[in-house]
Amino acid sequence: MKMRFALKTSSLISPILVMSFALSASGAFYGDPPDDHHPWAIHDMNRPKPKIVTPGSFSSPEAPGKPPSDAVVLFDGTDLSKWESAKEQRGPAQWKVQGGFMEAVAGTGDIQSKEQFGDCQLHVEWAAPAKVEGSSQGRGNSGIFLMGICEVQVLDNYDNPTYADGYAGSVYGVNPPMANALRPPGTFQVYDIVFRRPIYRDGKVLDPGYVTVFMNGVLVQDHTPLEGGTGHMRRTKPGPFPEKGPLKFQDHGNPTRFRNIWYRPLPARAVEGGTDGFLTAEATTAKRKEIAAEIRADAQKLADPSNPVPGMLRLAESLTYEQDPATTQKVTEMADQYVRAIKQLPPDKLPAKKDEAKTVFSAFDYLTRFNLLPGNFAAKSALQAIIKEQRWDKK
Ligand code: MG
Q: How far is the CA of 163 from the centre of ligand 1 (A)?
């Protein structure tokens, strides 16, 4: 796929790209360089790789699945040690645990996780009572309060109409779910939730915060913007949230069950200091400086008078992240020295340098093309001449 792309592009732009493809194993001098809002190049091998997560397994109505390896498990079916009463005086959670689930005990009050967290992927399974009682908001009502503030509704709506913005899977009072994908009461339902809290700075909203919900695998909230917390009868207003809060479950007087509760914290967004996404110019410059410093340190480790090319290329690569006159001068000196060494080789030793010389040329060609080295960079023209003379540019 990658190869086809490179060749196709090269036929449109320049045969140079075919050569630079050889460099793509190191990732350098390949895709578009960093810019004012992206600290990494396109296809940058210096960019941190995704962390390894061993996936869990999916749940069925009969049995809970296994959480992924990096999940923080809040309830595994055995005890409420990670939960407490949400009443002001706190104290132990008074819900009961049996058969691998917890069950709300009417009148004992809401419970909440002892742990506090913010942005997350959250997995919760719940079951409304098999014995159907009550109607509308009175049937199998509970709720999942993200950060203790924003309720994703838990309700038995299998055969039980109510107001749309209070259905199971609603952001209560704010946004109805896009579908009613519930299983019958008594059966475990699965919610997979992605939550991003609002981000404000100096009273201005940088990100309103969002909630995405899958109900039994069906998308019911699609990146729904938050409008503050949620409440009954009252319209809430957008506003900042704290950094962290507990996960709260509602005691609405119905013996609703929960099992297999876990979350995964999410990395910071660009607006709050994360390094993926569209960054501010300041954040980008700072990150590029950091990457350049790491690459220059690496170049120093690679420095080897008997084999100067890897160190030289690594040092040159740092210029794509940060322009620095001393580095440019050093690269220029090393490049000139490299060309001199090539030119001094006896004719029979020259062919062995073909790939290396083309690689070095390709790097300098990239850097001049993106104005990261001066357009008249002498070593580039000299190498180009050698490549032509030796007919190394021919297939
Ligand atoms: Mg509720």
A: 13
